[in-house]
Specification:
single chain; 139 residues; mainly alpha; elongated
Length: 139
């Protein structure tokens, strides 16, 4: 895996997320219908409506399926993110620390996300950090 491939996967997912959120915002009054689709309570769905950064990658994938949208970007990012930790470990320590700082990713946070699921806020931070880190790399 390369940093470019990871970034492309994340940006593709971000585009899918935006499309899913447009559908969701049109459908928010029907939160009760989405409860079984997402496995969340009505309150949790409303909370995510108010704070979209709380959505998780798997929930976006479920919504994409529900709205008959392509889930390929979700699948790709779910397959790519587990490769992040080995990728970081193979980087020289100076580059790794810089990328971790730019992405606001600590080793503990990264391990936690691998064990659970990625929040949209974390994905967005990773996109920003990776973009800035790649811009600083020599060609």
């Amino acid at each position: 895996m390369t940093a470019q491939y990871l970034l492309e996967s994340l940006l593709s997912f971000q585009n899918t997320y935006r499309v899913v959120m447009r559908h969701f915002n049109d459908d928010v009054r029907n939160a009760r219908i989405l409860e079984p689709v997402l496995g969340l309570t009505n309150n949790s769905i409303r909370q995510r409506y108010n704070k979209p950064q709380l959505w998780r990658v798997t929930e976006i994938r479920r919504l994409a399926v529900h709205y008959s949208l392509s889930e390929s970007a979700c699948i790709r990012v779910q397959e790519t993110l587990p490769q992040l930790q080995p990728y970081l470990q193979q980087l020289p320590s100076r580059q790794r620390r810089r990328l971790e700082r730019l992405s606001q990713l600590s080793t503990r946070k990264l391990t936690n996300r691998m064990a659970t699921d990625w929040l949209i806020a974390d994905v967005n931070e990773l996109i920003t950090g990776l973009t800035n880190w790649m811009a600083d790399q020599p060609v």
